[in-house]
Here is the input.
Amino acid sequence: MSNVEGFCLKCKTYGPIKDGKEIKMANGRTRCAGFCSQDGCTGKISKIIS
Ligand SMILES: [Zn+2]
Here is the structure.
């Protein structure tokens, strides 16, 4: 799961999610949660993918 892109609220950049993991939510949907791939940014990115 590294080809999912999301918006980082910390550096205000749209880019690929690093170390993304699929997380099943209680409502049956799936989201990808990981970290911003920008150099030096430690922001987290979470995005619903299905
Ligand atoms: Zn960032």
The chain has one domain: 5-48. The mean pLDDT is 93. Strands lie at 5-8, 13-24, 30-36, 44-48.
